[in-house]
Design brief:
The protein contains one helix and five strands. The protein is of the alpha+beta class. It has one domain. Strands 1, 2, 3, 4 and 5 form a five-stranded antiparallel sheet that branches. The mean pLDDT is 90.
């Protein structure tokens, strides 16, 4: 199974050095959404005005496949 890395991108960058094996990229998309939600549940202050929060998903070679971005928009 392919290895996927879920790298946190926001005010702080937290690379996923371990990664997780998943069946395919579709499963990695679901996992990225769950990871983002769980992370924000524990640290909601990461969403601030004008800053975004994201999870970039990379393959085993470090190539970015896609990203989940969450941005606070007012007004």
């Amino acid at each position: 199974m392919p290895m996927f890395h879920f790298n946190l991108t926001s005010q702080k960058h937290d690379p996923d050095l371990k990664g997780i094996e998943l069946a395919n990229e579709a499963m990695a998309r679901l996992e990225a959404a769950k990871f983002a939600g769980a992370y924000l549940r524990d640290a909601p202050e990461l969403i601030t005005m004008g800053e975004d929060f994201g999870v970039e998903v990379a393959d085993e070679n470090g190539r970015r496949l896609f990203a989940v971005k969450i941005v606070l928009i007012t007004g």
